[in-house]
Amino acid sequence: MNPTHEPIISEYMTASPATIESDLTLAQAAERMHVNGIRHLPVLKDGNLVGVLSQRDILVLQSVPGCDLDTCPVDQAMAVQPFTCGPKAHIRAVALEMAEHKYGTAVVVDREHPAEVLGVFTTVDALRALNKLAAR
């Protein structure tokens, strides 16, 4: 790799991530996260990105009296308007935005078709990228 090359998100993102439909339950989301070993799920409605759900969102709701994860839909807990970027976004710019706003993930979308989720770039992906870039 050229040392002057500015690393882009598509080089370090998790491609084709697990997603969840907005009308499914938080229990189903928690199970999907557990099975896939992940902490973030892009949320879709009719195939369009409408939010992102984190493991932390579910944990917070578990502590709310009267909240039943088996009946509460994902769209009641998700963050709307998730932070998104394109696959060619520079990793430094995305990482800075995530750090400044304390975002746990960036949803990578096709800028021509923003409903299409191409990947996610999480804090874990950022640490893997840091490790590779620091080894140069």
Task: Provide key terms for this protein.
four-stranded mixed β-sheet; CBS-domain; alpha/beta; globular; 31% helix; 136 residues; 8 strands
Descriptive report:
31% of the residues lie in helices and 27% in strands. With 136 residues, the protein is α/β, with parallel strands linked by helices. It has one domain (9-134): Roll (CBS-domain). The chain is globular. The model has no long low-confidence stretch (mean pLDDT 92).
CATH class term: Alpha Beta
Helix content: 25-40%
**How large is the share of residues in beta strands?**
25-35%
Q: What's the rounded overall pLDDT mean?
A: 92
Name the CATH architecture. Roll
User: CATH homologous superfamily?
Assistant: CBS-domain
The major sheet is characterized as:
4 strands, mixed
Radius of gyration: 16 Å
Shape call: globular
Order of helices and strands: EEHEEHEEHEEH
CATH topology: CBS-domain
Summed up, the helix count is: 4
Give the tally of β-strands.
Answer: 8
Distance between the termini: 9 Å
Low-confidence stretches: none
Report the structural category. alpha/beta
Q: What is the total number of structural domains?
A: 1
Strand arrangement, largest sheet? 1-8-7-6
